[in-house]
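Q: Hi! Curious about what 3-oxo-5-alpha-steroid 4-dehydrogenase looks like structurally. Here's the sequence.
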Amino acid sequence: MVFSRRETLTLKLRHSENLLSCLLHITRKYKKIVVLSTLSQSSYGRYMAQSPPARTVPARLAWFLQEMPAFIIPLLLILTTHKSTIMGKYMLLGTFCVHYFQRTFVYSLLMRGKPFPLSVMVAAGLFCSLNGFLQGHYLLHCAQFDDEWFTGYCLLLFYIGMTINIHSDFILHNLRKPKEVIYKIPTGGLFEYVSGANYLGEIVEWFGYAVATWSFPALSFALFTLCFIGPRAYYHHRFYLEKFKDYPKFRKALVPFIF
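A: Let's find out. The predicted structure is below.
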């Protein structure tokens, strides 16, 4: 059977819509599982239950492996997709890759912390793979932008959030000397106003990205980020208040002056 060009295009669009619908369904189910596990605050870091050494992965290696798919998969999609005349979608997806390049190749080398449970690393890697494909597929094959569409100003909020996130991570990294295991009160930057300045920066990033792409997958990811690390900021804040009697009382958990 020979299809006309219009029928072929219609079939491709239906295929993309069905694939996107399926991925969104899987993502929603997976997010529910991850959010429920996160609310217990026992997956990783200071709240993690002790795991046998054979079931853990060194923190730097675990972070590198789990974050890398979110950088590699969109990059491969860009390289293997027919080039469009609309550069905005490539700028947006490139911005997504910039974030995960920093998290994969820079942040992972600087981080210090307890080994990750293997199950947490695998779950995070699966989510990053799914999310990287979902964001890339939508922008390259489903999103429709006008020829005159320009995203530079829209991405300003994203880069403000990214700057806050990186600066806050730098403050946390320099709080302790190598091999120190004690906790200290972070100061400087937005840590003067909130306990989770690094989390606030990342949340601002992804909501800025959602505004720039004006897409459901990006908004879904931004809401997921809020639900995933927002509670962690609250528990960090409560931890600091309980551990340090001199912890600043005016400092909030996540949103300056409000929460």
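A: A fun detail: The CA atoms of residues 64 and 105 lie 7 Å apart.
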